[in-house]
């Protein structure tokens, strides 16, 4: 009797340990990626930007290049900057980079590398009533991607043929938080030109932050155009989820722990899945696994 | 089973094509000077990004 209860305790304890261990590994990667993306913390004091050559390369995740600490460029900002420039209508360089990263990792970038993803997860730890998001809102990010990132910078131009980065200008709360607030705090001359646009962006930022406290990864689910691109590529990405449906007992634990409200058994390649792995460790039958898809041609006998 | 195999083959084809397209796009973009445009934008304060644009 005593032996049976000990083994039951061990199994449960082992499950908990696995969950903690997986989550710690993911957090270490997230913190390392955050640190690498924002190496120049000392720049916050003077409010200047890093101006080195690393900035011609894009960060795989969302991290504003106007953040004083940023080492790399934001791919969404860079995409709009090039397509809004006089000589170009589409950024092959940035689109190719995002496509390459997305084909390999899909939305694992959101779960492991994105600096703003880590910020959102920390915000969600603030004690508050927690809510689920209505699924229809997840399509908003595709509208933002098509209109604000791809079309408006090309279509709405000035007399010189230059378009503004519409997503950065009117929507992006990441830029307001990481770039706007630190720069306004350290530059009195910038504070003098604050107008209605900044007020709109500040309201969007506040609503986004409240959303992130109440709904897990609110920005990822609703507003992130980069997540929209990686989400589409999740369907074919090399890093993917495998499901052994024959072993599944339909207990629903995977669905219950998913921060993105995905049902991993029925939709393992969902555009919302950020490959965080919480479902894989919660499964009592080891039905789910995350791995790199390597399919080599079989030799004929 | 056959359906699943066909789907996997299609996905594999999409992956290969997308990877090739990504490589070509990056090379073409760098060749025509897009990296310099990105650098030029990123090293200066982007007034639009911070809400003053």
Describe the model.
The complex is a heterodimer of chains A (301) and B (53). Chain A has 301 residues and is mostly helical. Chain A has one domain (21-233). Chain A contains 15 helices and two strands. Chain B is elongated and about 55 Å long. The model of chain B has no long low-confidence stretch (mean pLDDT 89). Chain B has helices at 2-31, 34-42. Chain B contains two helices and no strands. Chain B has 53 residues and is mainly alpha-helical. The interface between A and B is large, with 55 and 36 residues.
Number of distinct beta strands of chain B: 0
Number of helical stretches of at least 4 residues of chain B = 2
- The pLDDT mean of chain A sits at 92
* Distinct helical segment count of chain A: 15
Overview in brief:
The complex is a heterodimer of chains A (301) and B (53). By secondary structure, chain A is mostly helical.
Secondary-structure topology with pairs:
The complex is a heterodimer of chains A (301) and B (53).
Chain A: H1 2-37, H2 43-46, H3 75-83, H4 92-105, H5 108-112, H6 115-124, H7 140-155, H8 166-170, H9 173-186, H10 188-191, H11 196-214, H12 218-222, H13 225-233, E1 239-243, H14 253-257, H15 278-282, E2 288-292
Antiparallel strand pairs in A: 1-2
Helix pairs in contact in A: 1-6, 3-4, 3-7, 4-13, 6-11, 7-13, 9-11
Chain B: H1 2-31, H2 34-42
